[in-house]
Design brief:
Layout: H1 2-15, H2 18-33, E1 50-53, H3 56-66, E2 71-74, H4 89-94, E3 100-103, H5 112-119, E4 124-126, H6 153-170, H7 175-201
Parallel strand pairs: 1-2, 1-3, 3-4
Amino acid sequence: MIDKKIKIFSDFIYKKNKLIFQYIFIAFNIILLTGCVNKQVYKPNHDKPYVLTTFTILADLARNVAGNRILVESITKPGAEIHSYQFTPSDIVKTKGAKLIIQNGLGLEAWISKFMMSAGDIPKVKLTDGIKPLLIEEDAYAGKPNPHAWMSPKRAMNYVDKIADAFIKIDPDGTVEYKSNASTYKAKLELLDKELRDSLSLIPK
């Protein structure tokens, strides 16, 4: 029942118009996922590996795993429409020196294939690979996978594991730190999941 309420909540957010979705999207993720993020401004510094994500929520997740070993930037800015984003030449410039591009997948970034063609031969990791998607049950989106898997703390933990594995591949010397950072962040997500489930359990069936 709790899982169904979480799914209904996620479906509800997905089906709202774009403007409302953006406000809820930003507020939800700032409160739930980025409270423990180091707010340092990351600037390209090729003394360290440099990684790009497709949007800011993934960048915040990645920074929690990266610690001080990897510089992480988002291709898109906060509040950008991720589904139909139109990348620019300046976005392509950002890829110079990048060791990895992190994307969500499940059709969220419709533009990513063309972007990667322009960016060149940069390794990419898709964080929803291997995750069984929740399907939207109603309206025009019925039967389609809900790509906002990170909104479930349990699924966000899968994201963290994939990020850690990807970082270890590009920087093996940081294996211990990445695993430690991932473990610490997953513990916080586990606590968040419990709090969310406790709150949802109070909602009448």
